[in-house]
């Protein structure tokens, strides 16, 4: 009985934190609980019954297996529990979603007891999480003349699991709660520094926004018990920055409805809104939970007498309130008229939130049920030899005669499944596509594992070319939280079929390479579709979509993803890049020039950026595609020249071979398969059989942006603008300033070179600059700490082979040691160079952080409040984002450099240069 006593001890510890008992997922504990239920005189029997019924995680957990088997015993009369009748046992099975519960239900439905089989069939008709082993059993029984199997399959063909669900209410009453002004990052809803607790939903829920906000939400719920609380980003976009399912889970936990009375802390149907709508990745996550995301448009540009926008002293459009959504405002969502009302007053059309597909997600309680439901219906119709009955809303298929295809339209058409044969689809079409590459990262990975268990998946889909589980987000500190979570995650994913950063058997050295860099290497076809558990899943080969942990799980389990084909914005370049500039400056200038051209409107938001970058290899081009997450784009596509693409694929092959040499390949030889596919693609390009992907010359774009390289005369810095009087303008990534703005005297407290935005060339720039400074000044002296975290181990190995790592070691005061990794996060820094373990480090902000109130100059991607640096009493922390040479020089000077100092410091250094392609990259 030790396991149960340990559980009771844990319950007492959680009670002290104001938490309920942790949901049970282990077979050993539940087996003890079942023994205590069977013992009528056991002192823990009543408590054990409660745990068994209400506190056991469903799906494919080992506990779910024990629960399903015990319920089967009760139904068959092999065990008698007065509190759980056979009828109640069937109800409990119906809430277990899949895996062992489906196996038990099939055993009962295909058994010899007709009465039991009939009841089991009733439950099975409501279930959708069936896999091949389950449908094969049904099909075999049907072909052998089993009438129950026939009845179930006929029900599936009619999709009664969906049609018999309650209809969506015509009116949904909401009460507003403004969560923040300006863009709301998922960091506010699920802070990165609490990543370790994401799989413990109740505990993680306590970190949403603030304790004060949580109390305010509870007060609104008490005041309006018949309404849902709608969380709002006032004057901003909801859910920018990261792809966290945990953010939506927290919103649902505080404002949604319980999905099942028998599964604690799993809620659905959250309602969120934003003045500028919902971030694309976040909106996908809202769909996963059957929620509603509204584009409120409650602040609009003020126009003058000529219909032109009125601008303030900074040149930004002045906004005026179209209608109020102040906290406590009662509004009505009408799902029939698809309008938002305040009383009888119509405020805005919200039809985009209630497309036929989204209505299905809402009715079914989430998008997964629809995805699996469609697969079950297809199986049933095929088994019965009938056409699929039209139950679900048909996918929107937009085909425009005479119009060419953008790059993303070409990729989606090639990978589409279930579309009208021979039909060419354009942007706006709803498409199911096969996924080639999938990535899971370590702070959302535990949630992905939970999602896989909940949808009863046990093995990766055979149509996925390759999948990787990273360890980069927890690379900085090997603390007790990491030691408890990461090995368990790696084992689960390795067993599931992924290539894992850490070998559960300990055969190869634990890797902490940044997930995006690894995915960029293992993507070996520019026609690929990639899904990754991070917003920075933005490859420079193929088209990659950052996704929540649930969408990653769905891609792993099914090899598919569903979404509309996005519109594209074409980005090309003209002019000459100045020799003293770095490509990172071109990236920032692209955003600045786009905003200037379109009067402050971000035409990139929610769209594909098709960047005609041509001459840069995948490593270097990744700096642009990676940053498109900060441009609020849905994804990006890099259009490359043939020779450059071949070079990129050869680099990728070399990196994959390194992984194989380290022993990272699995028994299915996934990594070797990727090399073979790369060889095939290289041969196609070289022979002219299939050149590098390009759009058609007559493709149609939402907008076109031509970046003028001649206008980029000095380094460009993304500034969080922490003191802007307009709160909504802070922490947006849209304030891009030239170096001279800072006058050479802004104090810099710490520098950071690392994250996914840097490549091997950046590490070499760092080494070259340090040698330059020593040659000019006789020594290198840091006036601010410089933290360096290379993205991958292979970069470190290559730097060692080429002599650059030795240079960095010479100037460093700390170098990571994998044999004795740090056990605690650093809280104080000296003015020296720190060579940290490859991984995310400060950019993630969940382990290492700068000192509170610091001004940080970083190559990172994140400038959100509290991410890299938190505020101090009376001083805001700020994270300025810039190129590697600017960061290096800022730490040596302890301040921002002047343009003259910068030019002197980079003389003779091989910065990342770029020249536009000589010819248009179109077909």
UniProtKB/TrEMBL annotation:
Residues 178-405 form the Aconitase B swivel domain. The keyword Iron applies. It comes from the Bacteria. Residues 6-162 form the Aconitase B HEAT-like domain. It comes from Flavobacterium agrisoli. GO terms for cellular component: cytosol. PANTHER family: ACONITATE HYDRATASE B. GO terms for molecular function: 2-methylisocitrate dehydratase activity; 4 iron, 4 sulfur cluster binding; aconitate hydratase activity; metal ion binding. Residues 410-894 form the Aconitase/3-isopropylmalate dehydratase large subunit alpha/beta/alpha domain. This is Bifunctional aconitate hydratase 2/2-methylisocitrate dehydratase. InterPro entries: Acnase/IPM_dHydase_lsu_aba_1/3, Acoase/IPM_deHydtase_lsu_aba, Aconitase/3IPM_dehydase_swvl, Aconitase/IPM_isomerase, Aconitase_4Fe-4S_dom, Aconitase_B_HEAT-like_dom, Aconitase_B_HEAT-like_dom_sf, Aconitase_B_swivel. Keywords: Iron, Iron-sulfur, Lyase, Metal-binding. It is an enzyme of class 4 (lyase). Its EC number is 4.2.1.3, 4.2.1.99. GO terms for biological process: propionate catabolic process, 2-methylcitrate cycle; tricarboxylic acid cycle.
